[in-house]
């Protein structure tokens, strides 16, 4: 049985966020070609073309070509799918904390605009991501952020904090000029029967290779 999640903010755009179950791409965009890149927790964004493959290192993909499904994989980081349906431009970003701090979201938006999208028209959805109460970090992690980011950290046990990654991602998108951002609010760590979680698997001493696939496309 295939199961995937959709975001109301992306209604009318073929897209889906997988659970731990395999994603049926044909159910989302029949006949589409899946385009993925080698994700490296960076901020590089590429425009999908015939040369785009897993040999290309990037953490964001954009396109204005019908018949493609842009795909990213995650297992706690934030998968972000974006679309300007009026311009026919889509994007997908892998936003872990490093990528988000480094500007992968802003770079994805800039690449979409270069293809004809308008910031005011771009809608974005944040898929299954580790939630604040599941994401303990230490003081060293906290120093990677500015004092202006204090609101994304809740006090935890001594020398530790609870970081709100989806809220931080939404903040970066809002600050970049997007008016329509939806967080599906699905905690990958806290739902072992539904989602893969790198951190949960690490804590349990289990295999850490499970990933969710998130895709978005334009009809041919």
TrEMBL record:
UniProt keyword NAD, yes or no: no
Classification via InterPro entries: Cu_polyphenol_OxRdtase (IPR003730), Cu_polyphenol_OxRdtase_sf (IPR038371), Cytotoxic_necrot_fac-like_cat (IPR011324)
Keywords: Hydrolase, Metal-binding, Transferase, Zinc
Reactions listed under catalytic activity: adenosine + phosphate = alpha-D-ribose 1-phosphate + adenine; S-methyl-5'-thioadenosine + phosphate = 5-(methylsulfanyl)-alpha-D-ribose 1-phosphate + adenine; inosine + phosphate = alpha-D-ribose 1-phosphate + hypoxanthine; adenosine + H2O + H(+) = inosine + NH4(+)
NCBIfam families, sorted: peptidoglycan editing factor PgeF
Entry similarity comment: Belongs to the purine nucleoside phosphorylase YfiH/LACC1 family.
PANTHER family xref list: PURINE NUCLEOSIDE PHOSPHORYLASE LACC1 (PTHR30616:SF2), UNCHARACTERIZED PROTEIN YFIH (PTHR30616)
Protein name: Purine nucleoside phosphorylase
């Amino acid at each position: 049985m295939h199961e995937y999640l959709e975001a109301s903010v992306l209604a009318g755009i073929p897209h889906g966020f997988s659970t731990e179950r395999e994603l049926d791409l044909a159910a989302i965009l029949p006949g589409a070609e899946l385009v993925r890149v080698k994700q490296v927790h960076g901020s590089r964004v590429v425009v999908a073309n015939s040369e785009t493959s897993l040999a290309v290192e990037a953490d964001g993909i954009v396109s204005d070509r019908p018949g493609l499904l842009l795909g990213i994989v995650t297992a706690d980081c934030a998968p972000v799918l974006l679309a300007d349906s009026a311009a026919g431009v889509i994007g997908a970003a892998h936003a872990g904390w490093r990528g988000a701090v480094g500007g992968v979201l802003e770079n994805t938006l800039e690449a979409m605009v270069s293809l004809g999208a308008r910031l005011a028209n771009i809608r974005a959805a944040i898929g299954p991501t580790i939630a604040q109460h599941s994401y303990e970090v230490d003081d060293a992690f906290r120093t990677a952020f500015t004092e202006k980011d204090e609101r994304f950290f809740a006090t935890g046990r001594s020398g530790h904090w609870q970081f709100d990654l989806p809220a931080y991602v939404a903040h970066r998108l809002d600050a970049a000029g997007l008016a329509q951002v939806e967080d599906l609010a699905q905690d990958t760590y806290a739902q072992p029967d539904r989602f893969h979680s790198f951190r949960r698997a690490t804590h349990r001493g289990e295999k850490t290779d499970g990933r969710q696939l998130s895709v978005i496309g334009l009809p041919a």
